[in-house]
Description:
Layout: H1 5-14, E1 19-29, E2 35-40, E3 46-47, E4 49-51, H2 59-71, E5 73-85, E6 89-90, E7 96-111, E8 120-126, H3 136-146, E9 152-153
Parallel strand pairs: 1-7, 5-9
Antiparallel strand pairs: 1-4, 2-3, 2-8, 5-7, 6-7
Amino acid sequence: MxxxxxxxxxxxxxxxxxxxLPGVTAIVFxxxxxxxxxxxxxTREWAVLGGIPDPGEQPAACAVREVYxxxxxxxxxxxxxxxxxxxxxxxxxxxxxxxxxITMRCRAVGGEARVNDDESLEVAWFAVDALPDLNEFGxxxxxxxxxxxxxxxxxxxxx
Length: 159
């Protein structure tokens, strides 16, 4: 996964300490109701699409950009389906990040699904009842994107 330049600059002064970062996940459906996934180069696993907004970039614009950069598909965000602060992640190099994920349901409007950058080994459309092996993060977000419900968020802690 490419590290945005501004995060590399932050790391130069912040070291390996925790960085609190925005993240955007895009759940993209086509006109047949299939969901777009990529098999990532770093984990070799199927995943939902997403990334980190550039400074000043709106979450919806980030979703559109990330989907196109990774898959060649043009999409339109339709609604926010979930907002969730995630647990901290420690990367192999010792960097620690924690993400505030904003997940959006998106509709494909053009392009052709293909590997479009070095972050994906494969890109494909899947029927929601025939998903490949996918982690709970992705499955939950697809479920929420399919639900006709208000935006989901973690309940407040009672601590």
